[in-house]
Amino acid sequence: MTEFFRGKKVFLTGHTGFKGSWLSLWLHALGAQVTGYALPPPTTPSLYRLCRIDEMVHGIEGDVRDAEGLARAIEDATPEIVIHMAAQPLVRRSYRAPLETYQTNVMGTVHLLEGVRRTPSVRAVLNVTTDKCYENREWPWGYRENEPMGGYDPYSSSKGCSELVTAAYRSSFFNPSGCGGVPQHRAAVASARAGNVIGGGDWAEDRLISDCIAALMKDEPVQIRNPHAIRPWQHVLEPLSGYLLLARSLYEEGERFSGAWNFGPRDDDARPVEWIVSRLCGLWSGKASYELSGDDHPHEASYLKLDCSKARAELGWRPVWSLETALEKIVEWANAFRDGADLRTVSLDQIRQYAARCGSQWLLPSWAPDVAAVLPEGTGKDGAVPDVAWMKMQLENGFVSTVLASASEDVWNEL
Predict the structure, then answer these.
(1) Which of 194, 124, 185, 186 is nearest to 159 (CA)?
(2) What is the 3-state secondary structure of 14-38?
(3) Most buried pick, 155, 350, 403, 409, via CB within 10 A?
(4) How many angstroms from the chain centroid is the CA of residue 158?
(5) Rounded to whole angstroms, what are the CA distances from 166 to 89, 154, 175, 195, 209?
(6) Is there a contact between 12 and 34 (Cβ–Cβ < 8 Å)?
(7) Three-state secondary structure call for residue 123
(8) Angle formed by the axes of helices 323-338 and 208-217, to 10°?
(9) pTM of the entire predicted model
(10) Cβ proximity of 260 and 126 under 8 Å
(11) pLDDT tens-digit map of 161-189
């Protein structure tokens, strides 16, 4: 992975947002040449400014609703990989600004793909949408990539529309088999759907974690809107690792990896809102409490889960941080912010820790893993011993020293 991205030219929309900032940090660390295209950071403070990401990427201030401006920026950058993350990402805001939501999320996708069609250098295109693009029937099982698109609210609907646009363009203009004489572009095109991403540095309005951290820092009770709503919570680095794997696969193998992909957490990390807030309050070192909000709120889905079997089987992707670990990392990041620490260093260190859990292909030489970084969660804390399957995985990834340091005699004999 580190060798693949070194020197690659990546065009990233939405690089000033929460997910875009984390991805910019990771791509830069991997050695990619990143051109970002986005509006100014949507919040103050912002992860983008706190981590000084403008020093790491070539940033272009622009709006994806500006078709010609976006196309010109893509052409000028001559990228090999395009990742589209710019969006109006908030459900509740979509009720207040439906026109902006559809213009940004639907026509923004059209404008991006038109820009790619004008740029011969592009080999891989990834459109990042959301798990909310599915027609949600409140099923207890996860949605698969071939389930129907839908959306009750303007945001969810707009992302379903973005998926349909991506599929239509893939069939019509990025089709290796041709489409009745229509000129074709060689790029492989995919979309990625993730669950509720959480992590340090998210200050967006009407998001559970950002609302929690803001209240806790003020010693105020956290207000909960939908305590029983269940979401597929995952640390932001989880889907980002999937996007990077998918981008590489699109670039190297093309059509085989075109299409839609789910990147969600483990089944047992789909938890109710109230459980998340209660756990965050328990991890917080200061005064912490929460209460149910009695205000009226627009409709939001109460249950939604993803089936990620395809990504596991074909990409070898899997979530590696539990929800508990994700919440710990959020509190760690928030404490660093409160204490005035260098948040670029803090964020890159969390990426390093995550990469160490993923395997040696993710590690830069300067990120040489220590045993504590790659041992299974719980090892060394409660005396748990790594099992044979986990040890075999570490041997395959080249972590021989980790195995030597942590395998019991019985496990070593089985290996």
Answers:
(1) 194
(2) CCCCHHHHHHHHHHHHCCCEEEEEE
(3) 155
(4) 19
(5) 18, 18, 12, 19, 30
(6) yes
(7) coil
(8) 40
(9) 0.87
(10) no
(11) 999 999 999 999 999 999 988 999 999 99
